[in-house]
């Protein structure tokens, strides 16, 4: 990989781009009308005032939700089925965990957004590179604020949030008809992976933002702790009671169906309030396990509402 990059640099200036560092939130004009300085985690970075071709790790949903052109993302985020064909029309899979440098160069980005501090030096030889941190972007509103400032798309952010609220209100009305009041109910998010059980906060996909920011459910106290921390935790069956809530949402891959059957026979599981009240809701793992950006959250509003209504019948 480095060999390819070195050859390209030596060969002649296929790559001529500025960089520095990035991660925070404000922009100020520089001497060029086409560039602005963005204060970021890796320092002050001169970025395009209105970037046209963006390669982004982890956050293609956030960028696309603001109407910006994503030309590449990592292999994990690329399959996001909630993004429209139009949002993905120029998007290619650039590999994971690192971007494939040849593919990255071929996409000719004018801005690169990465979560990998070890790759900033290489990426910034291709285009201005902004380093972001998961904890600084916790929650849909924070992440949209950040990317709207970086991409100069405040109007697009306002438009998206307006449409998001409109859809959320529509789904809340549907829940009200079956006497489900999100603001008066707590939730927890669980996932099975082999013989392990994991719990998640509200910003680690699994419908967290759709359920809290969108529909207005309250987090269980233990879930709230995860939201403020690393975002997830492995849970043993003996401590499942700590994640009891009015509603428990659980997802698992098809290969783990037997694991769920075993869990349902566990006394610790059977003793949960949500289990006793029939408020355990299984979700499609392939749809919810990884994708949690703004557009995904908006599309998941009806997905979770319909699942809740089905469970209450």
Q: What's the short version?
A:
It is found in: Cell envelope. By secondary structure, the chain is an alpha/beta fold.
Structural overview:
The structure is a single chain. With 313 residues, the protein is of the alpha/beta class. The protein has two domains: 2-152, Nitrogenase molybdenum iron protein domain (Rossmann fold, 3-Layer(aba) Sandwich), CATH 3.40.50.1980; 168-312, Rossmann fold (3-Layer(aba) Sandwich), CATH 3.40.50.1980. The protein contains 13 helices and 14 strands. The strands form three sheets. Strands 9, 10, 11, 12, 13 and 14 form a six-stranded mixed sheet that branches. Strands 6-5-4-7-8 form a five-stranded parallel sheet. It has a three-stranded antiparallel sheet with strand order 1-2-3, with helices on one face. A hairpin with a 2-residue loop joins strand 9 and strand 10 (196-200). It starts with a helix and ends with a helix. Residues 1-32 have low confidence and may be disordered. InterPro entries: ABC_transptr_periplasmic_BD, Bact_iron-sidero_bind. Residues 51-312 form the Fe/B12 periplasmic-binding domain. This is Iron complex transport system substrate-binding protein. It is found in: Cell envelope. Residues 1-18 form the signal peptide.
């Amino acid at each position: 990989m480095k060999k390819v990059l070195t050859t390209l640099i030596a060969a002649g200036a296929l790559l001529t781009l500025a960089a520095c560092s990035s991660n925070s939130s404000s922009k100020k004009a520089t001497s060029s009308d086409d560039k602005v300085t963005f204060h970021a985690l890796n320092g002050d970075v001169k970025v395009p005032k209105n970037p046209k071709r963006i390669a982004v790790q982890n956050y293609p949903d956030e960028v696309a939700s603001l109407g910006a052109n994503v030309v590449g993302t990592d292999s994990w985020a690329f399959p996001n089925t909630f993004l429209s064909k139009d949002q993905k029309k120029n998007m290619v899979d650039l590999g994971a965990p690192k971007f494939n440098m040849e593919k990255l160069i071929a996409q000719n980005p004018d801005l690169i957004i990465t979560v990998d501090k070890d790759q900033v030096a290489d990426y910034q030889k291709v285009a201005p590179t902004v380093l972001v941190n998961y904890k600084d972007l916790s929650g849909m509103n924070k992440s949209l604020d950040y990317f709207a400032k970086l991409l100069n798309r405040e109007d697009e952010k306002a438009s998206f949030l307006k449409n998001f609220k409109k859809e959320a209100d529509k789904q809340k009305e549907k829940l009200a008809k079956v006497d489900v009041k999100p603001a008066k109910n707590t939730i927890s998010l669980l996932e099975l992976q082999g013989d392990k059980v994991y719990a998640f906060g509200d910003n680690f996909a699994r419908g967290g933002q759709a359920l809290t920011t969108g529909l207005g459910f309250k987090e269980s106290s233990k879930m709230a702790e995860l939201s403020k921390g690393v975002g997830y935790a492995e849970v043993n069956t003996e401590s499942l009671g700590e994640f009891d809530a009015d509603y428990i949402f659980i997802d698992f891959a098809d290969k783990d169906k037997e694991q769920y059957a075993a869990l349902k026979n566990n006394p610790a599981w059977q003793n949960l309030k949500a289990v006793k009240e029939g408020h355990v809701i299984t979700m499609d793992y392939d749809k919810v396990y990884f994708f949690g950006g703004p557009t995904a959250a908006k599309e998941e509003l009806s997905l979770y509402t319909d699942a809740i209504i089905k469970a209450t019948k």
